[in-house]
Amino acid sequence: MKKQILAQVAILAASALATPWSLACSADMAKPFTAGPIATQPATGTWTGPFSEWVVDSNGVGLQICTDSVDGLGNPPPCFYDPVDLSNAYTQSLSRGGEAFWFLADSVFDTVDATGTAALRAVIVMGVESAFLSDPPAPGFETQFQRLRTRIDVAKLGVYYVETPWGKKRYNVTTLLDPGNGQNRSEISEPIDITFNPNSSNAGLVTPFLIGTNRGGVDPTVYIGDGLTPTTVTGSPCGENWVRVTAFGPDDQTPLDINGGSNVFTNTQFTVFGKLTPAAATPLSIEQAYYSRTGTKTDVHLMAEGSASGTAQVIAAVPNAAAPTTSLAKDGNRYYASVPVSAVSLPSQVLVTATDTIRQTTSNPQAAALRDLVSITSAVASCTGVSPARTCTLTVEATSSDDQLTDLVLANFNAPLGTTGSVTVPTSGLPATVTVVSPTGGGAATKPVTVLN
C-alpha cells in the first residue's frame, strides 16, 4: 500500500483481510436481515401486499406475513392479525386488517422478592410487522417495521439491566409511579419501532428470529411457533435465548432483591409465531469489495454477511481471475475471500451469489462495484491563538490499497494530498470530519478530526 501524505504524522493504515471479523458477543448483537420485494397481486385469490413478500434473517430463516388463525378472525394459533374490516374494501382485497406480522414473540413474567412482595412485572414485545399509518387502512399509507417494546413495572428504585436475545439496555428508575395499566404507567417503558423498505438489507433489531422448541399443535415445517404455547427458543446470535433482568440499588452496585433474595431473574419462556416461506432469497449483504495492488500483485478482497446455516455458501465470480468462481471462506454468518486477478485488466465489478441447499430459500446474486480501499490514518488539527484570531493547521494522512495511485484528494478543501503537508484554515472553517477520495480508484473514507489546542 503506497502512502499519500498531507501531514507529518505517520500511523499504520487500516484494513487487512488476514483476520476475519470477531464473533464475540456485544451489547447490541442483532444481525442484519433482508426484506424481499413487494408482493404482487395475483389475478385470482388473495394477497398480503403491498408489503415485502418475505423477510429472511442471518440464519437463513425466511418468513411471510401470517394471516392464518384458528378461526379466520385473527385469533391464534398459529398467528395473530387484525381481521378484515367488512366496511373497508381495501382490507377486503388484502384478506386482512390493519396489522399483521412476519414475526412476533412475547416474553411476559412476574417476580416477587424474599418477602413475597411483588418486585416486577415485565412485558417484552418483539416483532417484525406490517401496518398502516391511516385509520382505516388506505392505499399509500402502508408501513413495515421492526419492533422491540420493553415495559416493566418495578416496585423499587434502582438501576435495571434488561437483556434480550439480541442485546442489553440499562434503565435508571428514579421515580415510582402509581399503580395502573398501560405502557405510560410503567417505570421502564421504551417502545422502539424502526421502519424498513422492501428490496433492502436492514440493520437488525430483533433478528435472527426466535424459533419455538415446542410449537404446540402446528406443523413445524410451516410455522416457527403457534403464538400461544410458552416455549424455549433458539435463534439468538450468541445463544442467549432468554430475557434477563438484573437489578441494583441507586448506586448501581448494591444488589436489589427482585427474585426471592436474588437480584437476577431469567425468563426462558416465549410465545412465538411466524410462517415459513419457500420464496425468500438466501440472505446476503456485501460489506466490502475492494482491490489491492502492490507491484505486479493485484487481488480482489470480499467480505459479506450471509446465512449461518451449515449448508449455506457464498461464491464470487471475479472477472480475470484464475478460476471462474471462488467460494468465500465461512466464519459463522461471515464470509471472506482474497482472489488474485490480472493487474492488466482490473474488473469494474464482481458478482457474489449466496445459496443454501437445505433452507427454504432461493439463490441470491448481487453485483458489487470494485474500488480501491482508502484509509485515513490521521486527521489532526493543531490550533493556536484565541478567537477571533485563532487559527488551526489541519494535517491529514491517508493511504490507498493501490500503490499506483498518487491522486488522493482531501475533499473538504479540494486539496490534493502532497508531500509537504498542511492546510491552514480559520477556526470557523475547521470541519468536524474529513473525507478523502480516490478519483481514479473510486474509493473514499471519512474520519473525525482530533483537535489539539
Secondary structure: elements and pairs:
Layout: E1 2-6, E2 33-35, E3 55-56, E4 62-64, H1 89-94, E5 100-112, E6 118-132, E7 142-154, E8 158-164, E9 167-173, E10 188-195, E11 200-202, E12 211-212, E13 223-226, E14 233-234, E15 243-248, E16 264-267, E17 271-276, E18 284-294, E19 297-306, E20 312-317, E21 326-327, E22 329-331, E23 334-340, E24 349-356, E25 364-369, E26 371-372, E27 374-384, E28 391-400, E29 409-410, E30 415-416, E31 423-426, E32 433-437, E33 444-448, E34 450-452
Parallel strand pairs: 18-26, 27-34
Antiparallel strand pairs: 1-28, 2-3, 2-11, 3-4, 4-17, 5-6, 5-17, 6-7, 7-10, 8-9, 8-15, 12-14, 13-17, 15-16, 18-19, 19-23, 20-21, 20-24, 22-23, 24-25, 27-28, 28-31, 29-30, 29-32, 32-33
